[in-house]
C-alpha cells in the first residue's frame, strides 16, 4: 500500500514539477492558459463598463480560477518531499498569494490592494517558462547586463545628476506659468525630455527655456548611445568568447581556434 | 502553328515573369508605377475634401487600374505553365485580390473593407523588387533578425511583463482622474512611456505617479540598448562570417575556414 | 606693373581661397562670424515682436552684411583664375544667392521666399569648415553611411511599408473622431508613433486602436536596433581595417599585424 | 604638545580627506547622507504647498545642515596642510558655496538665486564617490567619449544644420497658425522632432507640413544610429585594448603587444 502511494505521489510530482513527460508538458500548458486567463479577468474587471455589465461572469470565473489554483496548491504541497521548504520558497509564496485573494475578499470586500496581489500571478508564468529551452538566451542577456553593471550605474548617476541640475535651472528660468511649479516637477520634466519621451503636459514657453530644452534633447539623443554601446560591446565580447577558445598551438602559437577545432588552422598541428 | 504559339507564350512569360531582358525590365517599371499610382488613388480617396471634389476622376482612375490589372492577371495565367499553381500561390492570390475590389463594389457599394483590400496591392511591389539586386542585403538583415529571434522573444517577454506590472501599479496610484481608467489603459500608457513615444494623452498627476513614471522612462531609455546590442552583435558576427569561407575540407568535409586558412582546423589536411 | 598686379592678385587669392597663412585663417574666421551673424539676423527678423521693435536696426545690419558679401563676391571673381567656372560652381552659386536677396527686396518687397534663400547662407559655413582638420572624421562617417546604403534603403522601404499598412488599418479601426480622418493622416500618425516621436495630436481612443498602437510602438522601439546595428558594424569594421593590415607572415602565416609592425608577433620573423 | 597637536590634526585629516580607515568611510557615508538630505530639503521647499505648511521645519533643517557644513568646512581648513590652496580649489569653492546660502539669506531674504547655489551641493557628492571603486568604469566611458569627440562634433554640426534648414522650411510652409510663429521656434520644433522627443505643443497641420515632418522623424530615427555607432565601436576597441598589454619591449621599447604575444612585433625580440 505504502509502495503504491509512493508511486502515486512520485507520478504526480513528475507531472506537476517536471516537464519531461507528455503529461508534465500538458499540465504546464493547461496551467499557463489558466494563469493568463486569470490575468485577463483581472484586467477586464478593472474596465468599469465591463465590470458593471458582466459582474456575475467575472465572479464565477474568478471562483473557478481560485478553486483550480487551490487544488494545484494542495497537490504541490502533498507531492513535494519537503512541504515546508516549498511553502516558504519564492514560488511557494507566489502560489499561495495567487490563490487567496478571492477567499480574503469574502471577509473584507474587493479591495483595490487585491488587484495588485492578483496581478502578481504573472510571476507564476516565469516558473513554467523556466522549463522552456530558451532560458539560455535570457541567461546570456542577464550576464551581459550584469557584466556592465558598474558602467550602467555610472551612467544612471550621470543621468540623474544632469536631470537634477538642469531641472533646477529650468525651474528658475520658466517658473510656474509653464508648468514648472516645483523643482521635483522640473526634474520630472527633464527626465521626460532627456529620455526623449516628451509628453508635452509641461513644455517650455520662454525663448531661453526652449533653448535649454533643445540642449537637453540633443544631450538625451546623444547619451542614449552610451548604454547601447555598453551592452553591445559586452554582447559582442560574450559572443566571441563562446565561439573560440584561447588554446594556443604548440607549433606556431596561433590562437582563437574554433571550439570544435582539432588542428591548428594555420600550420596543421594537432592541438591535443 | 503550335510552335509559333509556344514562342509567343514563352516570350510573354519572359517579359512578365523575368527581368533579364529590356522588355522585362520595362514591364516591371510600368507595373511598379501602376501599383504606386493605384495606392495613391486609394489614399487620396480617403481624404474627404478630395473625394467629394474629384469623385469622378477617382472613379475613372480606379477603373483604368482595375482593367490594366485584369489584363495583366489574365496574361499571367495564360503564359504560366501551371496556371492553377500560380492562382493559389501567395502572389497569385495577391494579384487576384488586387484586381477584384472594383468589380465587387459594383454589387455591394464602396465598403470600407475594400480599402484594406486595395492597400494590399502594396505587397505586389515586393515581387518586383525581389528581382532587384539589393535583395541580398535584405536577406542579410532578415538572417540577423532570425538568428537573434530567441533573444528578441526573451526581450519582448520582459518588456510586456514590465508593462503589465508597472501598468497595474500606476492604475492603483493614479486612478481615473489622470486618465488611468482601467488596467489595460494603464498598460497602454506604460508601453507608450517605456518605448519613449510619450503621447501625453494620459500623463501622471500625483508626485508618486510622476516618480514611477520617471523610473519607467529611464528603464525604457536603458533597455532600448538590449535589442540594439542583440542586432548589432549579430550583424557584426555575420560580417565576420563573410570573411570565413564555405570551402569544405576534402578529407573531413568540415566548413567555415578562415579565408586565409591553409589547413583544415578539424583534421589538419592541407586545403589546397 | 603687370608683375605687381599678379602678385597682388595671387596674395588676395591666397587669403580668400586658402587657410594656410595667418591672414587666410583670419579671413576665414571673420567670414564665419559674418555668416553666422547674418543667419542670426534672419532668425530674429522672423520673430514678430523683435521685427516690429528693431525694424531699422535689422535693415542696417542686413545692408551691412549684403555690402560685405558683395565685396567678397567681387574679390572672389577678380582673384580667381577662371571666373566663369567659379561663378557656376556650387559654392559660386551659393555665394551669389547669399548676396542678392537685399537687392532683390528693393524691387519686390521683403517676400517670404527670400528668407529661405537667405538661410541658405548656412551652406557657406561648410566651405570654411572644409578647410578645417576634422573633416577626416566626417569622411569616415560618410563612408560608413555610404557603405551601408543598400541595407539602409531596405530598412527604409520596410519602415514605409509598415507605416502604409498599419496606417490603413488604424484608419479603418479608429475613424475620424480620434483624428484619423484620412489614410495619409493615419500614415503620418503611424510614422509619428513608429519613430517614437509621439506628438499626441492624434491618439487612438478605442481599445483595439490602442492595442495596435502598442504593437506599432514596440515594433518601432525594436526596429531602431536595425539602423543602429548597420552603422555600428560598419564603423567597427572600418575601425579595424584602419588599424591592422592583411599581410601574412612568411614563416607561420599569421595575419592581422598592426600597420607599424615590422616583425610577426607570433614567431618573430621579419615581415619585409 | 606640538607633537600631540600634529597627531590630532593628522588623524582628523585622515578621517576627513581619506576613506581607507573605517572612521574615514563612516565620515564619508554621514556626509553623503547629509548632502542628499540637504538636496531633498531644497527640492521640497520649492513645492509650494509643502513650503507653506512646513515653513518652520524646513528652516530648522536648513540651519542644522548649514551649521554641520560650517563645522566641516572649518575642520577641512584646519586639518589641511595648505589651507589657501584648498580654499581656492574647485571642491574648496563648492564647499564654501554650499555652506553660505543660509547666512546670506539672513541679510537679503530667500532669493531665488540661492536655490541654484544650494543645488550645487550635488557636486559635493562626486568628491565622495571619487573615492569609490567604480570610478574606473566612468574613466573608461569618459575615455570612449573623448576619443570620439571629433566624430561627435561633426555629428552635432550636421544635426544643427539640418535643424536650421528644415526649421526654416517648416516656418515657411506652416506659418503661425500651427505654432510656427518664428524661425527660432521652428528650429526648436525641428529639434523636438528630430530627437524623437515630440511634445506636441507645436505640430504641423497642413499636408505638406506633415509630409516634411515625417521626413524629419525618419531622419531623426535613422541618425540616432550614428552617435550609437561611434560610441559602440569606440567601446569595443577599448575593450580589445584591454586584451593587449602595455608591456614594453626590452630592445626597442615598443608597446601594445597582444597578451599572448611571445615576440615584439616591432623588432622581433623575445618578450620573456
Short overview:
Chain A has 272 residues and is an all-alpha fold. Helix content of chain A is 73%, strand content 0%.
Describe what you observe in this structure:
The structure is a homotetramer of 272-residue chains. Chain A is an all-alpha fold. Chain A folds into two domains: 2-135, Up-down Bundle (Four Helix Bundle (Hemerythrin (Met), subunit A)), CATH 1.20.120.350; 147-242, Helix Hairpins (Orthogonal Bundle). Chain A has 13 helices and no strands. Chain A has helices spanning 2-17, 22-46, 48-79, 83-87, 90-99, 101-108, 113-119, 122-130, 135-147, 149-174, 183-194, 207-223, 225-243. The N and C termini of chain A lie far apart (57 Å). In chain A, 35% of the residues are buried. The model of chain A has no long low-confidence stretch (mean pLDDT 81). Chains in contact: A-B, A-C, A-D, B-C, B-D, C-D. The interface between A and B is large, with 64 and 60 residues.
